[in-house]
């Protein structure tokens, strides 16, 4: 679970570093990423970052291409005026119902 905006703090960055390592080193682990609150802006496409700076979009695309499931909270998108934007390919809009089920089914939950 990621709660913070993609830039400004390193919570999203660190969450995705962990997810990238899980996807590349532990393929047997089912990696699920739920973007909540300001973290839904991580799923906005066409992110431009300064040279040498990490890019959350690139990191999300890596984990998606390597088997992770990524969801963005629909209510959080709505609250930020982002409900009608296109999300990064592979990121789906979701609900608290799905997030709740992910938590019920999970062996471990990590929050950033």
What is the strand arrangement across the widest sheet?
1-2-3
Indicate the percent of residues in helices: 25-40%
N- to C-terminal distance? 6 Å
Question: Which architecture does the CATH hierarchy give at level 2?
Answer: 3-Layer(aba) Sandwich
Alpha-beta classification: alpha/beta
**CATH topology title:** Hypothetical Protein Ychn, Chain: A
What would a concise description of this structure say?
This protein is α/β, with parallel strands linked by helices. It is built from 4 helices and 3 strands.
Give a quick set of tags describing it:
alpha/beta; 3 strands; single chain; Hypothetical Protein Ychn, Chain: A
Outline the fold blueprint.
Layout: H1 11-25, E1 32-35, H2 56-65, E2 69-73, H3 74-79, E3 91-94, H4 96-105
Parallel strand pairs: 1-2, 2-3
Task: Note down, in words, how this protein is organized.
With 112 residues, the protein is an alpha/beta fold. It has a single domain, classed as DsrEFH-like (Hypothetical Protein Ychn, Chain: A, 3-Layer(aba) Sandwich), CATH 3.40.1260. It has 4 helices and 3 strands. The chain has helices at residues 11-25, 56-65, 74-79, 96-105; strands at residues 32-35, 69-73, 91-94. The chain has a 3-stranded parallel β-sheet with strand order 1-2-3. Helix 1 packs parallel to helix 2 (56-65). The model has no long low-confidence stretch (mean pLDDT 97).
């Amino acid at each position: 679970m990621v709660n913070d905006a993609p830039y400004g703090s390193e919570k999203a960055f660190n969450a995705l570093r962990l997810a990238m390592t899980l996807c590349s080193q532990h393929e047997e682990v089912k990696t699920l990423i739920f973007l909540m609150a300001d973290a839904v802006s991580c799923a906005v496409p066409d992110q431009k970052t300064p040279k040498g700076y990490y890019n959350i979009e690139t990191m999300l695309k890596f984990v998606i291409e390597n088997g992770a499931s990524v969801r963005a909270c629909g209510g959080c998108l709505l609250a930020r005026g982002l409900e009608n934007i296109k999300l990064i390919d592979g990121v789906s809009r979701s609900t608290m119902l799905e997030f709740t089920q992910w938590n019920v089914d999970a062996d471990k939950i990590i929050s950033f």
